[in-house]
Every structure is written in structure tokens, then in C-alpha cells.
Amino acid sequence: MIEGQEGVTWDDWVRLAGLAERHGLDGLFRSDHYTAIIRPRADAHDAWATLAALAAVTERIRLGTLVSPGTFRHPSVLARMAATVDHVSGGRVEVGMGAGWYEREHVEHGFPFLDAKGRFELFAEQVEVVVRSWTEESFEHTGAAYTLRDQTALPRPLQQPHPPLVLGGSARPRFAALAARYADEVNTLGATVAELRERKERLDRACADAGRDPATLTYSVMTACFLGADRAEAVERVRSFLAIRGDDADPAALLEERSDRWLAGSVDEVAARVEELRAIGVSRLFLQHLNHGDDEMVALVGDRLLPVVAGA
Length: 312
Known about the structure:
By secondary structure, this protein is of the alpha/beta class. The chain is 46% helix and 17% strand. The chain has a single domain, classed as Luciferase-like domain (TIM Barrel, Alpha-Beta Barrel).
């Protein structure tokens, strides 16, 4: 998972996609932001335009957003963009959606930034419209933000009943209920094992309340990854990240402090952390690769970490 707003060029995207395909990773996902978060200023190509282009130059990997804010696009536009990328990719797109959180970029670009309640309500309405656009022959919708009359959205996505819908959040009650109704997967940010277990339990309860088998809702985690052949190499990767953001913190101390939330350390250490997460029901991990110019770590994930995890 790449933070695309941090100066990732088109050449970078092509190179990263090639690395993911060659080294056996399942997919390449990206954030959906227009303003840098780590750097003071940086280029930020549009997320869905990037995915459409990558769909045409890749063959195997899954592609998607983590996650597209509800404040950026009309849901009819997002549904059609995703269906288009699904066709271009031959059915390899996944759609991550969230409520949005980054106030600065909303102000800079003129996107409305509602309060937390308003952003969630907009997000929930968007999810409904997107799913119905993909799956219903013709439908009407009248909501607080959107009114649609006799919509039939063609072409249908290649993936049926629709591309996997990944909702990003921390599994609070209203979010969990929305996910139980519509999502194929819930993606949550890295946290301690105890907190991640609690989030999974809230999702399981929401599924039970909705009459859905909790096993049908995939539970995934996105977290920073600083993998090294040994711990010293992982520390150097943390040091490189700190240099990017102009931070003089001690990289070894930071790695130790975040070891219960990140996937950071030697191959064996990270593999052990993966097993902890697997044991509480996490079935997919998105590795937030914050040093996007570091090709060697991508190769290390594919060539060294994946075989260990797969053989566990």
C-alpha cells in the first residue's frame, strides 16, 4: 500500500507494480489524497486515474484504493470509475471507501468538510448508491445528499455481483452495522492485538445482529512495514522514513515503541507478528510502504517474508 500523495511519479507507479507482480505480492493499493501528509508539499496523481492506467500495464495483481473519501466524488461517478477500471483490468479492482478525515486537503481543494457525524452520514449514503449502481437494473434514490431518478448504470462491473467493497474504519457501532450490511471486507489501521481483537468482536456482533455469518466479512489491517533481513536493516529503513519527514527521533527507539502496531523488524520478527494477527481473525495485511523508492524491501517481502508466512 503506497501513500500516493507523497510525490509518487507515474514512473514510480509502473516500477512498483512491476515489483509487486515479479515478487509474488497479491496487489498494489494506494491512498486517495490530493495533499501530502508526510512531506511539506509533493506531487499527488489522482488515485482512480492512476489505477486505470496501472490496470492496462499489469496482468495479475489486484488494484484498489485504501480508501476513497466520501467527500471527493459523487457516488455515481465513483461507481462508474470503479466499473471502468474493473473492465480495463479484467476484473482485478477492489474499491476502498471511507468517510474522509484530512481537513487540510478539503480546505485547500474546496471539498466540503462536514463534522464527523455529517461525514459518516454522507459516506453511508454513498455506499448504498455505489452498491445499488453496480447491482440493480434500475433504481430510485432519495437521500439527504443525493437524488437519483431511474438510474441504470452500464456497463456492469466484470466481477459479480460487484467488485470487492472494502470499508475503512475502526468498527464503531454505526460503522460496523454499515459494514455488516454492505461490505465484503473491513480494513482497519494497525493497533495492538488487544484493540484489533475488540474491533473484530464488534464486527462479528454487528454481523450476527444483521443475520450474516461473520466469516463472510473479511477482516484486514493496514499498517506501516519496515522489514529488514535483520533488525539493524529494519532500523535503517525507519531512519530513512524519519529523514523524509524531517524527524530527528531515534529510529531504533521508535521501532521498539511501535512494534505492537507496525510490521517492523527482521523477517522472523515480522512473521511472528503476522501469526499473532492471523490468530485473532486478520486474513489480509496491507503493508504501508512509506519509503516508496526502496525497491529492495518490496523484493524482501516477496522473496523472504511471504514464503515464511505461507508455510506457517
